[in-house]
Amino acid sequence: MKRLFIFLICILTTISLFSQDDEFNTIFQKKEDKKLRLTGFGGPMMIFTAIGNDFVHMMGGGGGLIVGNAFFGGYGFGKTNKTFYKYNDQYSLNYGHGGFWFGYIIGQNRPVHLSLSVQTGWGNISRGIDLDDGDFESIESNPVFVITPIAEIELNFSRFFKLGIGSSVSYVTGSGITGTAYTTKDFFKPSIYLSFKFGWFH
């Protein structure tokens, strides 16, 4: 996973250096007259990662306002697949977080370009029981603080839709983590990041 992350960064940096076109382009159409100035976006996001030795899928969403090449907004993620709580297979792990999202887009008008961002927010690590109806009954919940840097390749499919494929890693800390069987190292895993951005890009 670490090699994948480094490879993506190298490819994306190369793409941004070899193109100087300021016009907005999609992968199907390369020339447009308008420039991207101020717009908004939103959509679902997914993370494929690990907590400890367990594979984890995180599902969420986010959105924000793009001003020039920078953007800011908010996000939220929650764990979707079942994993047992560390060292105790009588209980399940529940984990989620949400907060602020800041980033910078390099060459956003190019069909394929780089987006660098950071998500920072608050969440909970919970120990509990999976109920028959699919709900989760929490027995113990501990608050945490999460910082996640993200590097994405963005593909301009149209003026209304962008697909982002990249990598991320989460730094989980705070007083809450000391009350669990987990450490920061359990969450600090290279991840595959996938985003679907819908908006008006002009």
Question: Can you give a write-up of this model?
Answer:
The protein is mainly beta and 202 residues long. 10% of the residues lie in helices and 59% in strands. It contains two helices and ten strands. The chain has helices at 2-17, 184-187; strands at residues 38-51, 54-67, 70-79, 84-85, 88-106, 112-130, 136-156, 161-168, 171-173, 191-199. Strands 1-2-3-5-6-7-8-10 form an eight-stranded antiparallel barrel. Strand 2 (54-67) and strand 3 (70-79) form a beta hairpin. The longest helix is centred in the N-terminal third of the chain and has 16 residues, at 2-17. It is elongated, with a radius of gyration of 19 Å.
Major sheet: order of its strands? Answer: 1-2-3-5-6-7-8-10
Report the total helices: 2
Mean pLDDT score, rounded? 84
Using the 3D structure, state the CATH architecture.
Beta Barrel
